[in-house]
Amino acid sequence: MSEYAARHGIQYRAAWNRFKAGKIPGAWQDESGTIIVPDEIHAKLNDAAVYARVSDPSEREDQLPAQRKRMEDWAVANGYRVVASVAEVGSGLDDGRRKLTALLKRDDWGTLVVERKDRLTRFGFEWFRLFVEREGRRIVVADEASGDRADLIRDFVSVIHSFSARLYGRRGSKRARAMAAMVEGDDADE
């Protein structure tokens, strides 16, 4: 109990009052009267959030729920307690996914479970892992080896489209019209 009080910057009596009020998760009193407070980090890591994602809206009805269920079952089978489960449709390149953002803001989980790295993000997964681990959390990838070629191609096309829109959006419509005219001219020559 004294270690708990020191970690939280409170007096022993305040820690005792928290224990008596049931506000220290997992704490218990042994037969000699000693209060045992579990290591909070390890207890929190057993609380898992499951994240499932597909790129194509046509996969919303069958593949997305199946992926979510697989990950929930995998988490339970590997000793985690699922406290949150989120599924959404969106590109792995999109950094504005609302459900993922809301999940990352929650503080009731310690382990994020995803089926594959690319279900979380297409690029920068290790940076993502680094920032999550700095908060005392972790990311667990259930299937490290698998990859889906169709999703990768869709995301590649999405990257090309995004960069093209930025390029032509900044340079103005005059340049975009000139490029379109050149492409149409090439098609007419054939």
TrEMBL record:
The keyword ATP-binding does not apply. InterPro entries: Recombinase/Transposase-rel, Resolv_N, Resolvase-like_N_sf, Transpos_IS607. The keyword Transferase applies. It holds the Pfam family Resolvase. It comes from Pseudoscardovia suis. Keywords: Transferase. Residues 47-186 form the Resolvase/invertase-type recombinase catalytic domain. GO terms for molecular function: DNA binding; DNA strand exchange activity; transferase activity. NCBIfam families: transpos_IS607 (NF033518). This is Acetyltransferase, GNAT family.
